[in-house]
């Protein structure tokens, strides 16, 4: 629980004073509790939640000015380089990194749930072959609600916990199949002798015809790191969507499906796909200057740049860039799009337009280049973000359900017609 600081903010309204309590967390700005404003007949107004803390949370802390991202207190660069993704999942879910025994037990649990009910595979046939894999994900993840009637009691801590494991375990299977379906290849079943990232790459790229298919360890390591870097990000749009859906008592599969929908937009997780489309459109380094002029005329956005919270640098982007360099070097890839991306980055970091607006490359700027090098098709980029973020979403959903909460129900500043009568 947050600490009351004893400090109060005083709001003067219609000649009266309303005292608003101020609370402190362990890090970050204090918050002003505005609930008592309601009694005065006013609402607070903050479209886009620019200055609104929507909940208390112990999971992730971001200091956007200093470029700090901590999960349960641990800096993201340490987690990305010193833990594997499932350890970070354990941390997000449980609050502590696992010891060896806990790690083995958690890995085993996740591996035991990687298969989906065989009937789930039939949902895919209902989609057009050219369906965007995110459209498939929204559908099939929500459809999981239909398979666990006996373990959907959100008041039951055991049901909640098994659901979290199921989601983390099954999402790579569903994601890989959303790709296989669109290319017309048979679905590959998960292999529990492989690590989490290896298993995903195996289900993506192996075929029944290629019995000797081996996952490249360099790519598996990069994939694992990409998963870790996307695992959670505090109360972003998709996580807030999951919490809001969860606040109605909706089942967790439906809530995660809502999160996937919110993530899909190009201002959020869809940006990684949009970055590659943008690089394709620009075409070559010679066209960069002209493109930047268009950005400054606000005709287009520089995708993969800017962030609501980070106004200095995105600490995930730092690790991602390093991983990008490692992967391209290990694979001996000299991608002309990387040169293009570097030129965009160079101009953006030196041009006053971008400096004044604190526009820095975000995590999605580099992830697309790595994913492309790994051989992941562009339409799967946001699916991979969703796969990795599932643990963050479910951790927030669990946190919300393990303490008293209220249904999320914002109000509005109504600017429509006043009451009138139908005249016929
Ligand atoms: N390209 C060009 N100008 C931009 C960009 C951009 N990518 N982002 C913001 N601006 C400008 C914007 O036009 C505005 O200028 P002015 O003050 O002259 O009106 C100023 O910067 C402030 O922008 P804003 O829209 O008020 O900022 P916001 O905090 O509401 O939006 C954002 C944050 C991430 C939605 C936005 O920066 C954006 O659309 N970026 C591109 C999409 C992207 O890369 N998203 C991925 C975010 S990281 C992954 C994730 O967590 O989802």
TrEMBL record:
Transmembrane segments: 365-388
Entry-linked Pfam families: Citrate_synt
A molecular-function term among this protein's GO annotations: citrate synthase activity
Catalytically driven reaction(s): oxaloacetate + acetyl-CoA + H2O = citrate + CoA + H(+)
InterPro entries assigned to the protein according to its UniProt record, in alphabetical order: Citrate_synth-like_lrg_a-sub, Citrate_synth-like_sm_a-sub, Citrate_synthase, Citrate_synthase_AS, Citrate_synthase_bac-typ, Citrate_synthase_sf, Citrate_synthase_typ-I
Active site: 307, 364
GO cellular component terms given for this protein: cytoplasm
Gene Ontology biological process terms from the UniProt entry: tricarboxylic acid cycle
PROSITE patterns documented for this protein: CITRATE_SYNTHASE (PS00480)
Key words, A-Z: Acyltransferase, Membrane, Transferase, Transmembrane, Transmembrane helix, Tricarboxylic acid cycle
Family (UniProt): Belongs to the citrate synthase family.
NCBIfam families associated with the record: cit_synth_I, PRK05614.1
The protein's name in its UniProt record: Citrate synthase
Biological classification of the source: Bacteria, Pseudomonadati, Pseudomonadota, Gammaproteobacteria, Moraxellales
């Amino acid at each position: 629980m947050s600490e009351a600081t004893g400090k109060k903010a005083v709001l003067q309204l219609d000649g009266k004073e309303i005292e608003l309590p101020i609370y402190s967390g362990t890090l970050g700005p204090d918050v002003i509790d505005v609930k008592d404003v309601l009694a005065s007949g006013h609402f607070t107004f903050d479209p886009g939640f620019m200055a609104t803390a929507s909940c208390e949370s112990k999971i992730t802390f971001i200091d956007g000015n200093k470029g700090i991202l901590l999960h349960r207190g641990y800096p993201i660069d340490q987690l990305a380089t010193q833990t594997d993704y499932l350890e970070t999942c354990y941390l997000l879910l449980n609050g502590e990194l696992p010891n060896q025994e806990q790690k083995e037990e958690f890995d085993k649990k996740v591996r035991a749930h990687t298969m989906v009910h065989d009937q789930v595979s039939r949902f895919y046939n209902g989609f057009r072959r050219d369906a965007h894999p995110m459209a498939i994900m929204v559908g099939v993840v929500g459809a999981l609600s239909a398979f666990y009637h006996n373990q959907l009691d959100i008041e039951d801590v055991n049901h909640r916990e098994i659901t979290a494991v199921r989601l983390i375990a099954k999402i790579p299977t569903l994601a890989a199949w959303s790709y296989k379906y669109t290319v017309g290849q048979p679905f590959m079943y998960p292999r529990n002798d492989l690590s989490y990232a290896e298993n995903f790459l195996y289900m993506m790229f192996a075929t029944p015809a290629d019995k000797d298919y081996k996952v490249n360890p360099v790519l598996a390591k990069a994939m694992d790191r990409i998963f870790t870097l996307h695992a959670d990000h505090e109360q972003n749009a998709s996580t807030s969507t999951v919490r809001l859906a969860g606040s109605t008592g909706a089942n967790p599969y439906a809530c995660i499906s809502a999160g996937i929908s919110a993530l899909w937009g190009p201002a959020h997780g869809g940006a990684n796909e949009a970055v590659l489309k943008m690089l394709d459109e620009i075409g070559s380094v010679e066209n960069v200057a002209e493109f930047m002029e268009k950005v400054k005329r606000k005709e287009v956005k520089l995708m993969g740049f800017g962030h609501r919270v980070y106004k200095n640098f995105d600490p995930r982007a730092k690790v991602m860039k390093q991983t990008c360099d490692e992967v391209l070097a290990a694979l001996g890839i000299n991608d002309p799009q990387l040169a293009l991306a570097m030129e965009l980055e160079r101009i953006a970091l030196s041009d006053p337009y971008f400096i004044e607006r604190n526009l820095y490359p975000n995590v999605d700027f580099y992830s697309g280049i790595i994913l492309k090098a790994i051989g992941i098709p562009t339409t799967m980029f946001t699916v991979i973000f969703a796969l990795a973020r599932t643990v963050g979403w479910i951790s927030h959903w669990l946190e919300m359900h393990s303490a008293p909460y209220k249904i999320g129900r914002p109000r509005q500043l109504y600017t429509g017609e006043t009451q009138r009568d139908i005249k016929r």
